[in-house]
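Homework help board

Subject: predicted structure for assignment chain

Our instructor gave us this sequence and asked us to write out the predicted structure in token form, then describe one feature. I got the tokens but I'm not sure how to describe them. Can anyone check?
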Amino acid sequence: MSAPTYAPPNPLWRPNTKTPPAFDITVFNQDYTQSRPLGPYIKVRFGWFWNVPGTATIQVRADHPLAARLMQCKRDVVPIRTYYNGIPWDGRVMSATIEGKPGEEIVTATCVSNLYWLLTILAWVNTTFPPEVQIGPTGKQDIMFGPADFVFKYFLAKNVIRLQKPVYMKLPIRYEIPELPQLKDLKTLDDILAAIDDLTADLCIISARFTQLDELYKTTVDSADLGLSCNLWTPKDGPSPWVFNTDTLARLQNVLDLSGDNFFWFMNPGNILGLADPDQWGKAQKAGYVFDTHKKRDRRWMQWRTDSGHITSYTRGVSHPKAHTAIVGGKAPEFVNQVVEWAANAAIKALLNWLLPGAALGDILVGDLFDDIFFSYQKFDDHKLKADLGPHAFGEIFVDNTSAYSLDGPAIGMAGLKAAGGGESLKLEVQAGGIDGRGFSFGEDDGSGRRFTVGDIMTFYDRGTVIEDYISAVEVEDSRNEKCTEFITIGDDGEVKDAWEKLIDRMKGFAGLSRAIANGTG
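My token output:
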């Protein structure tokens, strides 16, 4: 039987070959030991986001040499990596489709960046015990306190060691110690509170009980305005970055230290027992992913203007505040419940013995009757917002159902107030570098003063209105005609999300709530 013949492809459908591909995309085998360039494509779009996994879409012809490889994601890992003006994007194919008329099919691969690892790892209470027995030194939850960079890497390191996954922690741990205030400057209560806030701004406390890591970090990420990254490194890239090694014998290292690979340093100073190989300390031994946190950069001197001719189109959205007060809690700290119970039992016993001496009724106990009555809720107010909006401002929201008056209560309350306090965001569509090549472009600094990246605080000017906010997302599309198109989101994108994105957010919230209920403890 002869092979079927197809009509020649429509020439209008062929990719434009007059301009070279803007993205040099590499496709790897499963363990990153081999790779080959993707080469020509019809269209691609890559997205970089401040603290959530980036996304990408790649379109190629069905007769492309690597089209079949992109379609293998069902039972194989299909890793990809590219760079744009020096900024890497790496991840894997999550789904692929082939569609079109016979002989003119298009393969579309949808990809997600390697920060997606956070959505696939749970923070166990005790990583050395089986799931049937989960209790740790801190009780029913695994609790850690310290600078956010350390706390995030502590939870991730423990659990990737348990899973034996090649995810490494970037070193050194970032912990800026603020300058102590001068006593002569502390003249009012507001001055004292501001000084305390400065000293503790980089600190957090997180408790985990089989919590998905992206959800575990979310409140701190939102309140501290942190960025997250998890980028690929392979031995062919050159010397390993300085990392906390989570594979080989480094699994035995002191996880609480996160600065060296000497197993139980306090028991084995100088590695005298030879329990670890110093050549492996601080180095990745195989291809893996390097996790890190980031702070925003001040680039307010870089200003987008609607009258510059560099902006193709834009969308600006604002939202009204939904509340000026946040209530946190539902449970009182356990020690408060115990104190109340002891006091109530003592009072009842004394009363009964006084009313009926010798009746032996003083052993009646209240048990947990008074649990979660005292100090079970905590209130946080945005007084400035309340004053600005006046008596017609919307009032309260409930933002959490865990213990009030806990160390993480203020962070949860402040994050809730921020989310409910109204917002403003922008989406810009621009040609990379502008029409004349002298505009701004996404990428690593090149000395031109015209490069920006996610997390940069920039300025937007529109007919007398000036907005200062950070770049939360950048997507770059190359359809093989002239310059790339850059889609830039300034500020949190809640006000300019489309209906589909909002639906996904709600579904993620429902999933997180179900996990919280399942893991709730008394």
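Reply (TA_rk): Your tokens look well-formed. For the description, you could write something like this. The first strand starts at residue 26 and ends at 28. That's the kind of observation they're looking for.
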